[in-house]
Description:
Blueprint (H helix, E strand, L loop, with lengths): L4 E4 L13 H4 L3 E4 L8 H8 L4 E4 L6 H6 L5 E4 L9 H6 L3 E3 L6 H17 L1 H9 L23 E5 L3 H12 L3 E5 L5 H4 L3 E2 L2 H7 L2 E4 L13 H5 L5 E5 L8 H10 L2 E6 L19 E3 L8 H19 L9
Parallel strand pairs: 1-2, 1-3, 3-4, 4-5, 6-7, 6-9, 7-8, 9-10, 10-11, 11-12
Helix pairs in contact: 5-7
Amino acid sequence: xxxxxxxxxxxxxxxxxxxxWDALEKIGxxxxxxxxxxxxxxxxxxxxxxxxxxxxxxxxxxxxxIDACQNIKLISVLATGYNxxxxxxxxxKNILVANVPTYGTKIVAQFAIALLLEVCHHVGxxxxxxxGGRWETNDDWCYWDYPLIELSEKTxxxxxxxxxxxxxxxxxxxxxxxxxxxxxxxxxSGKEIGTYVELNQLLxxxxxxxxxxxxxxxxxxxxxxxxxxxxxxxxxxINNSRGALIVETDLAFALETGKVKxxxxxxxxxxxxxxxxxxxxxxxxxxxxHISWAAIESRKRILESxxxxxKAYMDGGAINIVN
Length: 323
């Protein structure tokens, strides 16, 4: 069925040119758009047209889009999260929604630790001062502009102890940290890495709190003034899961008062970040532009898995269906 039309609405972030769409082009007639408006439903509808398969990363597939594009049979997401799709309405219309569930476990965990290490050492900042000439003119043989933090024997609390949380915990444990975990699902692999505790205990005992939980109605705004007040003074918060897990005004205030020593964030509540986000003016706050997932190795896995999702659907045995 190589005449099946496949529309890729926003391919650039996954494949800016360093990978290939060949695997999808072997399956069907592929039409690639680097970017599609996130707000203009008419543009989305026009670009999908009569396509049977729609591939999206962050371009929303709403009820209106689904109603207008009645030939859609499969929506395949170039990501794990699929909240940009009205998946329940898609199910009502007998449209399958597939995602890529496990492509980024190791790289996202690695990035979480990278954020933590940058908070502890400010490697980038100190390198810039050297290239700016400061070291060669310094009165002493070394200098540092931020307190340097040793992590060994400190306690990390990981909220969300699934695949990514456990991978992060394993790295932290290898660095000599004590690992506490909070998750509704307790399993043996997690017990080998850390100690499961209730959320209140984790909040009160952790020197570092790392978020690896999904965004749900229960976790939305999980880090807020009340939960921050339960934390140790000088706690470090790391989030490269979902921005809306944190009430950003509350975190900004906690950074300003020093209740939270520092934060390392790869996600914010509205992306791209807005100029009025309070965290842009908060002290000791590192923010990166949602790139935890973006190593070429993981992006290659996204494309491979997406091709597998589409091929399985066309062969009559759909996989990774989330609705």
